[in-house]
């Protein structure tokens, strides 16, 4: 994972937690994307990541743990 920009230091714990969750799942996940025309602030495709054993999306886990924020 590449982290750039002024918030790099704040992003490292989120990247580490996401890596941990994905490693525990054996790197097997389901990525549920949004509609084709729905894009994020920088033109990226939006989606949610799910792994077996976790009812919430990994996006929601990171939000609930205060590691990321919606912008």
What would your notes on this structure say?
With 71 residues, the protein is of the alpha+beta class. It is 34% helix and 11% strand. It is built from 2 helices and 2 strands, in the order αββα. The protein has helices at residues 8-24, 58-64; strands spanning 30-33, 47-50. It is globular and about 30 Å long. The mean pLDDT is 85.
Give a quick account of the main beta sheet: strands, pairing sense, barrel closure: 2 strands, antiparallel
Radius of gyration: 13 Å
Give the fraction of residues assigned to helices: 25-40%
Structural class: alpha+beta
Task: Name its key features.
alpha+beta; 71 residues; single chain; 2 strands
């Amino acid at each position: 994972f590449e982290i750039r920009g002024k918030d790099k230091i704040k992003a490292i714990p989120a990247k580490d937690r996401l890596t941990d969750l994905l490693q525990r799942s054996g790197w097997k996940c389901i990525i549920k994307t949004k509609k084709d025309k729905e894009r994020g602030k920088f033109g990226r495709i939006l989606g949610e990541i799910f792994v077996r054993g976790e009812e919430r999306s990994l996006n929601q886990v990171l939000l609930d743990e205060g590691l990321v924020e919606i912008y």
